[in-house]
Amino acid sequence: MNRIIITIISLLSLAIAALPAYAESTRKERRLISEGNRLYKEGKFKEASKQYQMAVAVNPQSPEARFNLALSHLKLAAQPGVDEKQREQLMKSGTEGMTAIAGVGAYNPKLASYAAYNLGNVAFNAQQYPEAIQCYKQALRFNPDDDTARRNLRIAQKKLQDQNKDKNKDQNKDKDNKDKDKNQDKNNQNKDQNQNQDKNQNQQKDNSMSNNTAEQILKAMENKENATRTRVNAAGQGKEAAGKNGGRKNW
Fold it and tell me: For helices 129-142 and 147-245, what crossing angle results, to 10°?
């Protein structure tokens, strides 16, 4: 029994001895967060993020410091002049930080609601409306009185409806174009077939005309030969008659 009492007293002594250091770290954390908030309000997001990083170093479990650090990274990612690689890194660290805060809503519902709301804004700006809707709904579950989250939820739902309408319209347009192209190909095929048929008919007609012409030529030649033969025969008969009368003298 005495050993148990002695152990408890020892633990209490250690806890009491640690209180000043814990109080000092808490005060330092608060000062850093306060200074970061001041810089953040002035639009000095890079300087603010450094203060929040130091606050996290003092207390890695501080939800306020982690939330503010993630928020400052999202703000820095949206600033002009940030290269693409750095922007991706800032967005990644910012969204991961917000996701971690939103996941501990049971311990700090208000801060978790803010984190879910910011994740909704990130998804909305990327036109990822289904994800944005889920984030805004999560923010409202943590804080049902958040009218801004409710308003953004309605806007995201409307955007998703419009996006689906445009998608369906594009799909129908593509289908109509495919059907139109298919009909055009069919019409072109029929046209080619008709042209080939007309060409064959013209060829047959040309061949018929050629045969008729040949027959006419042959008939004309035959008539010419008959006429020539008739003239030759007539000329021969005339010579014969002249020969018979050639010995007769006219007195």
Answer: 170
